[in-house]
Design goal:
Layout: H1 2-7, H2 13-16, E1 17-25, E2 34-42, E3 46-52, E4 56-67, E5 70-75, E6 79-81, E7 87-89, E8 95-101, E9 110-118, E10 124-134
Parallel strand pairs: 1-10
Antiparallel strand pairs: 1-2, 2-7, 2-8, 3-6, 3-9, 4-5, 4-8, 9-10
Bound molecules: copper (II) ion (CU).
Length: 147
């Protein structure tokens, strides 16, 4: 149906994925880098291909893992979101990294983000997310340094 084709551009993104408990870690004054975490459940096989936030100059999807006994992180071009399988973005694992923050992230604030997910026909969908900024101690199980 033609109508469905027209609607599929951007508006349907929110129905393609469920985003649970999105949060960002509060920053200290002068800190330019921030981390954002959430759980994503896709309703069909998708890829997370990008993220944007007006609060930061650039945002990237990162992977953190142990390499030769050291925690390393790197930007990944995309993150697979298999249908129905929760994918966690969390400290010490996959996460969203914000660079050149335009403002401090203060506990209690809401941080607006836009995720881009790609479906199997390579169509891009935007998903609006509001992450709650939490205290720096939140999820402190692993240190996240960006030096
Ligand atoms: Cu990172």
């Amino acid at each position: 149906m033609l109508l469905i084709g027209l609607l599929a551009g951007t508006a349907q993104g929110a129905e393609l994925v469920k985003v649970l408990d999105p949060w960002a870690r509060a920053t200290v004054p002068g800190q330019k880098v921030g981390g954002v975490y959430m759980e994503i459940v896709a309703r069909e096989n998708l890829r997370l291909t990008g993220v944007k936030s007006a609060a930061a100059e650039t945002s990237e999807v990162h992977q953190m893992k142990m390499e030769n006994g050291m925690m390393r992180m790197r930007a990944v071009p995309f993150l697979e979101l298999p249908a129905g399988k929760p994918v966690k973005l969390e400290p010490g694992g996959y996460h969203i990294m914000l660079f050149d923050l335009r403002q401090s992230l203060m506990a209690g604030q809401k941080l607006k983000l836009e995720l881009t997910v790609e479906d199997r026909s390579k169509r891009q969908h935007r998903v609006a997310v509001e992450a709650l900024v939490r205290d720096r101690d939140a999820g402190a199980a692993s240190k996240h340094d960006h030096n």
